[in-house]
Amino acid sequence: GDSVTQMEGPVTLSEEAFLTINCTYTATGYPSLFWYVQYPGEGLQLLLKATKADDKGSNKGFEATYRKETTSFHLEKGSVQVSDSAVYFCALRTSSGSARQLTFGSGTQLTVLP
Amino acid sequence: EAQVTQNPRYLITVTGKKLTVTCSQNMNHEYMSWYRQDPGLGLRQIYYSMNVEVTDKGDVPEGYKVSRKEKRNFPLILESPSPNQTSLYFCASSRLAVVGSYEQYFGPGTRLTVT
Lengths: 114, 115
What we know:
The structure holds two protein chains of two kinds.
Chain A: E1 3-6, E2 11-14, E3 19-21, E4 23-26, E5 32-38, E6 44-50, E7 56-59, E8 62-65, E9 75-77, E10 86-93, E11 103-104, E12 108-113
Parallel strand pairs in A: 2-12
Antiparallel strand pairs in A: 1-4, 3-9, 5-6, 5-10, 7-8, 8-9, 10-11, 10-12
Chain B: E1 4-7, E2 10-13, E3 19-25, E4 31-38, E5 42-51, E6 54-57, E7 65-66, E8 76-78, E9 87-94, E10 105-106, E11 110-114
Parallel strand pairs in B: 2-11
Antiparallel strand pairs in B: 1-3, 3-8, 4-5, 4-9, 5-6, 7-8, 9-10, 9-11
């Protein structure tokens, strides 16, 4: 079945540091890939997405590139801020027509210190 | 404002006492889903619904029921809660499409504790 593997957290960085959160996937067909963010006490929000190989999703300074050859969708940001502290989830949806939709990774807690 | 609402946000209950967590969306979405979030496990889908009167099991349906009598509402029912159902629950909705990507909107979560 489909699965998503994220790097284990928690991740603690200083403000303005470079961020990478690794995400790899296993899926049949050609999945769409997503990063969701969950701020403390809130539900998940879509951060960015990519629907086909070599697509780059970007939002709020975050980027991720859909790499089919390595089945990866790593999240990056060049300079993190304290306000980026949250839990980040990588997710996929296959294009096989299944209505079960999103498969999530286990989440990575990010804490950014001033 | 487009949103998914859940009630209650916090609930402490005892083993065996039936409870219902409500979920409502105002975006006329066909698809609605319930997830539970547990440490180290991410989000796991409990049940989903493709439209009114159409529901199906997700990955962890045991101990839960759902109904979809109206398009906007998708309540989660625990007939006889047990401590292993202590978790953070999220409702989500989206348009239903066979191909293409689309955003899934999440509610704020319901933290349930079963003692």
